[in-house]
Amino acid sequence: MKPKKRGTLVTEVTPTISFNTETFSKQNFDFTVFDMSGQTNYRGLWEKFYSEVDGIIFVIDSADKIRFAVAKNELELLLENKDIKENNVPILFLANKIDIPGSSPPKDLVVALGLEGITDRSWNIVPSNALTGEGIQDGLKWLVEKLDYILKQKK
């Protein structure tokens, strides 16, 4: 997600094992991204940060249909959290690994994750490829526009 230096070629992305923090700027917004492992033993860390988030980026492996149920369950837990319910943060869903043959298109992920049921906040799903960066900037552009709108409404 963090913009790469020109000429840098990404050939492999390794899964997050524990917890990483990255910062970057996009269209006059400073992002602090908490990249937290989706492994079961790390999921408890997520809610410690919910009270401080302005937006959520939820990455889905669109090629791993077996884990869609797990992702849906985690999303439901996130949306039921008191801090998230009280704060109308937008959610960007990145349908990652869209380049892999047999991966699910975003419209199928909308159904599998029950996204049409999210009516209390803005959300968007964008096909992406972490290796090439495809879709990530489009998704971040959408998120920045939503955050900008929310910020202006608070003034």
Folded structure, characterized:
The chain is of the alpha/beta class. Helix content is 32%, strand content 21%. Strands 3-4-5 form a 3-stranded parallel β-sheet, sandwiched between helices. Strands 1-2 form a two-stranded antiparallel ribbon.
Roughly what percent helix? 25-40%
The strands making up the biggest β-sheet line up spatially as 3-4-5
The secondary-structure element order is: EEHEHHEHEH
Could you name the CATH topology? Rossmann fold
What's the CATH superfamily, by name? P-loop containing nucleotide triphosphate hydrolases
Question: Quick summary of this structure?
Answer:
The protein has 155 residues and is an alpha/beta fold.
List the helices and strands and how they pair.
Blueprint: E1 19-26, E2 29-36, H1 43-46, E3 56-61, H2 68-80, H3 82-86, E4 91-96, H4 106-113, E5 123-127, H5 136-154
Parallel strand pairs: 3-4, 4-5
Antiparallel strand pairs: 1-2
What descriptive keywords fit this protein?
21% strand; Rossmann fold; single chain; globular; alpha/beta; 155 residues; two-stranded antiparallel sheet; 3-stranded parallel β-sheet
